[in-house]
Amino acid sequence: MLTTLFASILNANHLLPILISQYGSLVYLGLFAIIFIETGVVICPFLPGDSLLFLSGSIAAMSAHSLNPVILIGLLAIAAILGDGLNFEIGKHFGHQLTKPKWQRWVKPQYLKDASTFFEKHGSWAIFLGRFMPLIRTLIPFTAGISRMPYRRFAWFNVLGGISWVSVAVLAGYFFGNIPVVKTHFELIMIAIVVISLLPAAIMALKQRAQNRRKGIESNVNEIK
Predict the structure, then answer these.
(1) How far apart are CA 147 and CA 170, in angstroms?
(2) What pLDDT shows up at residue 222?
(3) Which residues cross the membrane (predicted)?
């Protein structure tokens, strides 16, 4: 999965400009679909949303291409909001079925556990904060649906998070994506964005594992006593 992810990031830098020159405004629909699927389909948390938004913003800053940053932000924010809304409904109506063992190949138990821990720690703000964390981003609304979070509260943080995430990523690409040093090492920058954004989830998983190990040791000590 990681190999496919990195390959898609490296290819997107060259493929997206070609698609824009061939299909023009239809590329907006493709970008909309990718963001919607990443945020809305619980089995697709691996899609490179952050790097794709950054790349789109950097291309929009080039006069040779037709992407408009305002349209990008508006359209992709809608995609992100609708995606999370769908994911919430999937969790609400089908969450308990999708967490059964036969679905573990697609809905990874560790990812779901990390999302649940994140949700319990941050409460409603997890909907907003989770937007900026791959994997967690896709599973947080699913977890909120399972927990029967009131929809009005979810919708508020969903809209706030969707607009903020898309705006920050697209504008970062728009203003910084075409700096010479960034353009020269664009592929590495894309990979760095993914790695850095994955760090919080990785740290959370390591902390959880350490806590479980500590509890196991304490349990063994108590049994010996």
Answers:
(1) 32
(2) 59
(3) 25-47, 59-82, 154-176, 188-206
Question: In the structure encoding, which two tokens stand for residue 198, read together?
Answer: 């994955």
- In whole angstroms, what is the distance from residue 165 CA to residue 83 CA? 13
Encoded tokens for 97: 């079925």
The domain total for the chain is 1
pTM of the predicted model as reported, rounded to 2 decimal places: 0.74
Query: Is the residue at 222 inside a domain?
Result: no
- Domain annotation covers residue 141: yes
Task: Note the maximum CA span of the chain.
Answer: 74
pLDDT truncated to tens, each residue of the chain (225 aa)? Answer: 444 444 454 556 667 878 888 888 889 999 999 999 988 887 766 677 788 898 888 888 886 667 899 999 999 999 999 999 999 998 888 877 777 776 666 666 776 777 777 777 777 788 888 888 777 788 888 888 888 888 898 999 999 999 999 998 899 888 887 777 666 655 556 556 656 555 655 566 566 666 667 666 656 555 555
- Give domain status of residue 91, yes or no: yes
Cα–Cα separations (whole angstroms), residue 53 to 56, 73, 75, 150 = 5, 9, 12, 30
Which residue carries 């291309």 as its tokens?
Answer: 59
Q: Helix, strand, coil shares of the chain as percentages rounded to 5?
A: 80, 0, 20
Task: Yes or no: say if 39 and 134 are a contact pair by the CB < 8 Å rule.
Answer: no
Contact 158, 83 (CB under 8 A): no
